[in-house]
Specification:
Oligomer: single chain
Strand content: 25-35%
Largest sheet: 8 strands, mixed
Number of strands: 8
Helix content: 25-40%
Structural class: alpha+beta
Distance between the termini: 19 Å
Low-confidence stretches: 1-8
Radius of gyration: 15 Å
Length: 171
């Protein structure tokens, strides 16, 4: 399976990115950093300087999921398999939805795709970290079944900031 599309008109379609999609990966990641840099551990100034080879390497390092609506890339997340805290079998990162497409089912479509692939890819227990002051993202994750787990953690990438671990099991 390479995509999932929900039933509404102009609904999100989700695809699994490959290394050959490195430019789309770059473009949506940089758009995320332009619009919501504070939501991520990375920064636009550094990542905008990456070479094609660096973007291709990042595309190989993680599984990337890309949501599109009417041919427009509008949401993205990465998934990395690991043995994490609280039984997590994978870690979701770089999760972002273009502000023009928020509250339109994009985030849910990304996770629906991940859920459909969960058995074959060992994504049954999904973990992520979100900055503790990002109440909008925390609420969105809770709406799709994530629960806050453990104490707030001090970031090693952004000194002085704290993140909350959240966990979700695929049913």
């Amino acid at each position: 399976m390479t995509h999932v599309n929900s039933s509404k008109n102009s609904s999100p379609e989700v695809i699994l990115l490959t290394e050959e999609d490195w430019a789309r990966y770059r473009d949506i990641r940089l758009a995320a950093l332009v619009h919501d840099e504070g939501a991520f551990g990375g920064d636009y100034d550094s990542e905008s300087q990456y070479s094609e080879a660096q973007w291709r390497q990042k595309a190989q390092q993680y599984v990337g999921l890309l949501a599109t609506i009417d041919g427009k890339d509008c949401g993205f997340m990465t998934i990395e398999n690991l043995k994490g805290d609280f039984g997590a079998t994978c870690w979701v990162g770089s999760c972002w939805v273009d502000p023009k497409f928020r509250n339109g089912g994009v985030l849910r479509s990304l996770f629906t795709f991940a859920d459909l692939c969960s058995a074959e890819r060992n994504w049954q227990v999904q973990g992520l970290g979100v900055w503790v002051d990002n109440s909008g993202a925390i609420a969105a994750y809770e709406k799709i079944g994530f629960e806050r787990m453990g104490e707030q953690q001090l970031s090693t990438r952004k000194p002085g900031m704290y993140y909350q671990r959240m966990i979700r099991s695929v049913k």
